[in-house]
Amino acid sequence: MNKISTRAQIIQHADQLFYQQGFENTSFADIAGMVKISRGNFYHHFKSKDEILKAVIELRLANTQNMLDKWQTSTDNPTKRIECFIKILITNWSKIKYYGCPVGTLTSELAKLNHSLQANANELFSLFRNWLAAQFELMGQVKKADAFAMHILARSQGVATLGNSFRDENFVKQEVEQMCDWLNSLKKQQG
Amino acid sequence: MNKISTRAQIIQHADQLFYQQGFENTSFADIAGMVKISRGNFYHHFKSKDEILKAVIELRLANTQNMLDKWQTSTDNPTKRIECFIKILITNWSKIKYYGCPVGTLTSELAKLNHSLQANANELFSLFRNWLAAQFELMGQVKKADAFAMHILARSQGVATLGNSFRDENFVKQEVEQMCDWLNSLKKQQG
DNA sequence: AGTAAATTAGGACAATTGTCCTAATGAGTC
DNA sequence: GACTCATTAGGACAATTGTCCTAATTTACT
To answer: Which of A52, A85, B104, B184 has the fewest C-beta atoms lying within 10 Å of its C-beta?
Structure first.
């Protein structure tokens, strides 16, 4: 039957709900309703709500790594790889429009809760940061690689937040284009 | 005695707590503890928690307008005015470091809650957006004024989110400098 | 001083929260 | 078929939530 384990189902639905409703605002009852199990059953799989969050972050880290790996094999051109990253804003626009960036909104929420898993969530940013920096290095921007990575990360983050707030797809498209222009202007400077 | 009214005190402390802990995560008990009044007393001043949020947003709108007005009178140079905006990231760094941008984090949270006051919170962004656009117009950038306003708004927002996540002041300073450089390069293009 | 209104404290209220316990059911092994 | 262990359902639990009610107190005005 190849049935998905209950544990995996809990993580999967929690991932979705934490993104759409926020972590604090998502209750056990919400997740139980989605997975269609009883509330008491949770504690056989997870000791606490925080453990679910931990598992969700680990899932997101794995999914993100998979995505980065795919981009890595899809082309040898580091500039094109970075463009893949920039264009997630458009690829995932239908979700970003309503729920913002899954990484940024989570880290922001955990910061306000002063939650013990802040560092884990920040790893999601670090994953992108390090991968982007590696691409910039391949472009020959060894010295500025990390600064450029943070720059692109920040701009994407801001576009997601503003795009979510104003629900304006054209704005997102324009900013994506500008970021790609900036990226390609670096190549020329270098070559 | 010139005592601050209870209502004003509630709004003031709620403003602070909503920023530091988030709206949903701040309870009546939290606010009551700060103002030092009984919980039941709230409903003489506000019909519901949402009404407090509404009042808090109105307070923030008023405070923001005051800040913009001050910048407006502090100099005739629109470029310098925009620099004032960009540099809030540094001015308010000690708070942003721990709680992020008060506007961005609120709109993001309300989006996830699908809250009825989303539009009110977004007005905070609009206030900055329109003021920035007016400054860009004064700089002679009539056609691109709004796009530039959104651009600066988005970049500031992203820097606040990443700055909050990584707690990195140097990154913030670098990005602020780059934004100012970009701003001043526009002036040269024009003149 | 006396009266009316505004303000306050304190607690009741049902609903929901995360957590935990126990008994029943399931599957797989000998 | 009997036994073991994993999984599940259902409910108990105290704590907290936003909301509302009532009685007491304070304030303001005649």
So the answer is: B184
